[in-house]
Write a structure and sequence with these properties.
single chain, alpha/beta, D-Maltodextrin-Binding Protein, domain 2, seven-stranded mixed sheet, three-stranded mixed sheet, 14 strands
């Protein structure tokens, strides 16, 4: 998970350029610069080196573990920045046709943006069958464009409902199993003079999209076999229903409207301003790092499954997640694919990732292990959160289709949610506005909108 910086202008140029030459392969070259200029120290200097960019907090450990275990290739790692900072540099290298690494860490929703520029390599022919069983169908779908695979899944974010046990106990609330129950509980707490039940933030568009998908929305359809055509469906009834639902909660004063990941929002979480936090499996690590769950807050948080629209037909969704992709500038794509498949896949690195709440791993050897499943999570006061909530959600997740201009869509969503919060539009009107905005943008970029 990372805080995304606006990249709409860069994305627009990239998509337009890609469509103008969608049948031409991206020029090779550079291979990611100087393999002798690594952040890590390579000791097996007789082996070929693969350059990579990545920003996981424990990347140094992960790279060292890989290099110690591998006698075929070594990783030369550099952290050129997190999320948007890295993408800016990668986009520059794509445009120049040189300067990209062999392997790059990308958030899954960014893969189509780079794939349409022929900046990533389909790694299916480089050992996919040997590792296919290590990840779920949903995880592979999130790193695929059509039938081609453009990344190796590492971490994900199955969505659930974190809640304050002290608030629920005080107002005699049980974790709501449906969104109707969620609203009823929110009203009960408000009527009794309690805190806000949750939050509608305008800056969490990826979460808003996930919640719409849970209701049955399918925002985008895209097939690389028809690279100039895209389906944009942002104002279907499911999308309108979700925006109206949250807009009504905000209008009634049942949830707040604070942007998330801000000092103000975190202060509210710490001070008990919100009874629930709808978020992903990486949230406990993020909240712990932000100072939540400490001092007087210790032991006051638990997690429950995401409320459903139809409990007889539950749908699980995901927010966030990253992968390792092989770039088209890789000097040796097959060797680079070995690195992508092998990084963050060894037991020691995976264990460090989840025990320190750095990642929620997607590798099934972890998701099915008793150590992970039965772990008692300190942030949740010893609750077996993986067994009860996160693993079942991850297992049931089916994956989504992302668009080649995801950042523009997220920015446009932010504007519309802000308008809902400001009271100038209803959720349904916001969905119609979003459809017109994003469809027009897609056409400007050279797509035929279906």
């Amino acid at each position: 998970m990372s805080m995304k910086k606006p990249l709409a202008a860069v994305a627009a140029v990239a998509v337009a350029s890609a469509l103008a030459a969608c049948s031409s392969p991206q020029a090779g070259g550079g291979g990611g610069g100087d393999a002798s200029n690594c952040t890590n120290k390579i000791t097996k200097t007789n082996l070929p080196a693969v350059t990579m960019w990545g920003w996981y907090p424990n990347m140094q450990l992960v790279v060292d573990n890989f290099n110690k275990r591998n006698n075929e290739v070594q990783v030369c790692w550099t952290n050129v920045g997190q999320g948007g900072d890295e993408y800016q540099k990668f986009q520059t290298a794509i445009s120049a046709g040189t300067g990209a690494p062999d392997v790059v860490m990308v958030e899954m929703d960014r893969i189509p943006t780079f794939q349409i520029q022929n900046a990533l390599v389909d790694i299916k022919k480089y050992g996919f069958d040997a590792v296919k069983a290590n990840y779920s169908e949903g995880a592979w779908k999130d790193v695929s464009v059509g039938d081609a695979v453009y990344g190796v899944p590492v971490d994900g974010g199955p969505v659930a409902m974190i809640y304050r046990t002290d608030v629920f106990d005080k107002y005699k609330i049980t974790p709501p199993k449906t969104w109707a129950e969620y609203e009823q509980a929110a009203q009960k707490v408000k009527d009794a003079g309690g805190p806000l039940f949750g939050d509608l933030g305008s800056n969490v568009s990826a979460l808003t999209m996930a919640l719409q998908i849970q209701k049955g929305a399918a925002p985008f359809t895209y097939d690389p076999a028809q690279p100039k055509a895209i389906g944009v469906k942002l104002n279907d009834q499911a999308s309108k229903d979700v925006l109206d639902y949250w807009g009504n909660l905000a209008r009634k004063g049942l949830v707040g409207t604070q942007d998330q990941f801000t000092p103000e929002y975190i202060a509210g979480v710490i001070n008990g301003k919100y009874a629930t936090y709808i978020s992903a499996a990486w949230a406990p690590g993020y909240l712990t790092g932000a100072g939540v769950g400490k001092g007087e807050d210790t032991g006051k948080f638990a997690v429950a499954p995401l409320p459903q629209w139809d409990p007889a037909n539950p749908v699980q969704v995901n927010w966030g997640g990253s992968a390792f992709s092989v770039t088209s500038q890789a000097k040796n794509p097959e060797l680079a694919a070995k690195v992508a498949y092998g990084l963050y896949a060894d037991p020691e690195s995976l264990a460090d990732g989840w025990t320190n709440q750095i990642i929620f791993p997607l590798n099934l050897t972890v998701l099915k292990s008793s150590e992970f499943v039965d772990a008692k999570v300190a942030f949740f006061h010893g609750q077996q959160a993986n067994k009860e909530v996160y693993v079942p959600a991850a297992d049931a997740y089916k994956g989504v289709t992302y668009s080649p201009f995801g950042q523009y869509y997220f920015d446009a969503m932010t504007k519309q949610v802000s308008a809902i919060i400001g009271g100038s539009v209803t959720g349904a009107q916001a969905a119609d506005n979003l459809q017109r905005d994003v469809a027009a943008y897609a056409k400007e970029q050279g797509f035929t909108v279906q």
